[in-house]
Amino acid sequence: MAKSSKINFYPVILAGGRGTRFWPLSRRKFAKQLLPLNSEQSMIQETVERLLPLAPADQSWIITNSDLRPAITRQLKALPKRQIVAEPVGRNTAPAIGLAAFLLYRKDPKAVLGLFPSDQVVAKHARFRRDLKQGIKLAAAGDNIVVLGVKPTRPETGYGYIETGAASGDAGVLRVRRFREKPAEGLARKFVAEGNYYWNSGIFLWSAQTLVDALKKYLPETATLLEKIAATWGTAKFESTLKRLYPKCQDKSVDYGILEPRSAAGEAGAGIYCIPADWGWNDLGSWTAHFEHRLAQGVQKDNVIKSASSFTHDAHGNYLHAPGKFVAAVGVSGLVVVETADALLITTLERAQDVGKIVKYLDAQKNSKLT
User: Closest Cα to residue 203, out of 54, 356, 18?
Assistant: First the structure.
């Protein structure tokens, strides 16, 4: 039997988001992915580290923005600086991952890319890597796209969903029928009850060839621009070409730009597969999610408090963040209080999803000091 050829796997980590729902800790130049929300490491450091057994640090690429690049470079010293690429403007996930695909295709035509958000929690690393290995092999085997789906535990309206169909023939792998956008609560309940829907984790696997071909088919104008940018990689013209051409790319997500039109080909012919995930996934999308995560970790019970010291009396279910200070809470429940040197957030666990509206207000006021 012939030996199987080695698969060259390249993680591509998207790290350009502002994390506005984690204001006032998350800021334009030091966003959520740079914060230590799960451990002593930042979210992006955790993301890179759990991928190291599958790909050395010098095979990882980061797509971010010019505001965040300096801090990311400081946190990820093992990565080559040139592989931490700053978008001149945000153009959503399709151009971002597309740029990486064209760059890597020129470097290694047989490359397999993994698309990873930079700010997610994965509790069970061995299971995570097991599923990734299976997905990488499937992605390398042909014109296939693999998404890792998370079995829903509640009718969440803040996530996109993956509708799956028949088994693919590979153990535990399902064919994808279509991708569903964030649903209303009634529809989310229906998805959970039917049992063949999974949360879209935002983690995708595909060969560079598959992604390049898909971009040329579904986003041809953007593909032409990205190919021209990639042709200047390693030369003095790269940065100027990136700044000139990248803003002309279509503002499209991978879901809308590639996955939805491709899945319209039908379940059997689309070549899109889902590996159901069970590795303690959490995207920590708000202060409420972070509060629940810290309780689940057993770090604290009832109240989650980060402070020099604290006292509570008849206070339950609060998230209180005031490092270096004495915090006292009496007779309050369900609060979120987060203090920084220049701002104070006061909301409730129930309304924490609305924190991003504060940043929109500050942006409208052109108050860059607080964003």
Answer: 54
Say which DSSP state 150 is in: E
| Co-location of 267 and 299 in the same domain | no
209 lies in the same domain as 339: no
Buried b (16+ CB within 10 A) or exposed e, 285-307: bbbbbbbbbbbeeeeeeebbbbb
CB 211 within 8 A of CB 98: yes
| 161-165, 187-191, 258-262, 267-271: least confidently modelled range | 267-271
CA angle 70, 208, 158 (to 5 degrees): 65
Q: Is 58 helix (H, G, I), strand (E, B) or coil?
A: helix
**Cα distance between residue 244 and residue 225, in whole Å:** 10
The answer to whether residues 113 and 141 belong to one domain is: yes
Contact criterion met (CB below 8 Å) for 49 and 365? no
Q: What is the pLDDT of residues 266-294, one digit of tens each?
A: 655 579 999 998 899 998 989 999 999 99
Cα distance between residue 46 and residue 39, in whole Å: 9
| Same domain for 241 and 176 | yes
| Mean pLDDT confidence for 301-326 | 97
Residue 330 sits in the same domain as residue 198: no
3-state SS string over 269-297?
CCCEEEEEECCCEECCCCHHHHHHHHHHH
In eight-state DSSP terms, residue 251 is -
296 occurs within a structural domain? yes
- The kind and range of the H/E element at 360 are helix 356-364
- What percent of the chain shows pLDDT beyond 70? 97
| Residues in contact with 344: Cβ distance below 8 Å, sequence separation at least 6, in sequence order | 24, 337, 338
Residue (of 273, 268, 276) closest to 146 by Cα position: 273
Instruction: Give the structural domain span for 362.
Output: 287-370
Q: Is residue 247 part of a domain?
A: yes
66 and 36 co-located in one domain: yes
Would residue 43 count as lying in a domain?
yes
Domains held by the chain: number: 2
